[in-house]
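Q: What changes when zinc ion is included in the input?
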Amino acid sequence: MMKIKIKELLTNLIAIFYPATCIACGRVLLQSEKHICLRCMAHLPETNYHLDKENPLRLLFLGRVPVENAASFLFFRKGEQVQHILHELKYNGNQGIGDFLGECYGRKLATAPAFETVDMILPIPLHKKKLKLRGYNQSECIAKGLSRSMGIPYRTDILLRTEYTDTQTKKSRFSRWENVKEVFAVENEDDIKGKHVLVCDDVLTTGATTEAAIEKLLQAADVKVSVVTLACAN
Ligand SMILES: [Zn+2]
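A: The predicted holo structure follows.
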């Protein structure tokens, strides 16, 4: 009991001296705001892809791998707010923002007919070494938020990472694909048999990593796969 009170007191003291600021614009947040101020929330560049089954993201995947649905919450442009948000999530230890935006997006997905039949959420895993380095998997943060607002469980013991790949930024699309081809494994296949699983990730650029994960899931079991990400390039 005492411990809880001290923690609460410390949290309040910290809030007085270091008030929480909006990740996107830096303004001090009101008590009712979380991570992002209401003004920035209202101006987030939403794709609304979840409402359009023939959206460019799904078409991009369909050319390569059979997905049920694909959607992304936000458009990602270099130097803009969504990039700051993703940077916070990925490199600044801000796990809460992934959870928060996952929850926001989940609320939208929960009312979208295309995602009505989803049974389970599977975050794209990080390799153990990278997980140890970062301390958390940013896709899992998003999965937690999605899971809460969609009322669907997420699992981290089905889609696994097997090999470590180095930074892929300087490679061509083809070699990048080669690079990620064998990095995923599927365990507990019986648990996804006949199910509709939702793979989630933070950002989608070429889609090669996500594509490899989906391929692996489809090989392992009779399963339907959909994809969502927090952001995608446009
Ligand atoms: Zn703001």
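Observations recorded in class: Residues 22, 24-25, 27, 36-37, 39-40 surround zinc ion (CB under 6 Å).
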